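A quick aside before the break. I want you to see a complete sequence-to-structure record at least once, exactly as it would be stored in a machine-readable document. Don't worry about memorizing anything.
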Amino acid sequence: MPQRAPNRTATRPKPVHPLVASLSAVHVQVKTLLVYSPGYTVLRPLFLLRRTIDGAIDHAIDQAHRDGHSWGAIGRELVISPQGAQQRHARSAAGPAELG
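That is the input. The structure line, written in C-alpha cells, reads:
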C-alpha cells in the first residue's frame, strides 16, 4: 500500500508573537515572586504591570476597531461577547476627540 505524504500544514505550529513569548517569561517571574516574596512587596510592581497591560489592550482594541474589525471579531479575541466588547471598550475606541 503506498504511503501518503504527511500533511505539513496541519502539523506546522503557528508562529508565536514576540509579545506572547515575553509575557510568558513575565508570567513565570511573577509566579516566582509570589512564591518567594511577601505579598506586600509585589503589590506595586503588579499594579504597574496591570496598568501597562490595560493600556496596551485599550490601544490594541482601538487600533483593531479603527482598522475595521467588528466588535464580534474583537470580542472573540477577548473571549467575551460582541456586546461585552463594545460596552467595555467603545469609549476607548472612539478616542477623546469623539467623546464630547
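Two observations worth writing down. The chain has six helices and no strands. The mean pLDDT is 80. We'll return to this after the break.
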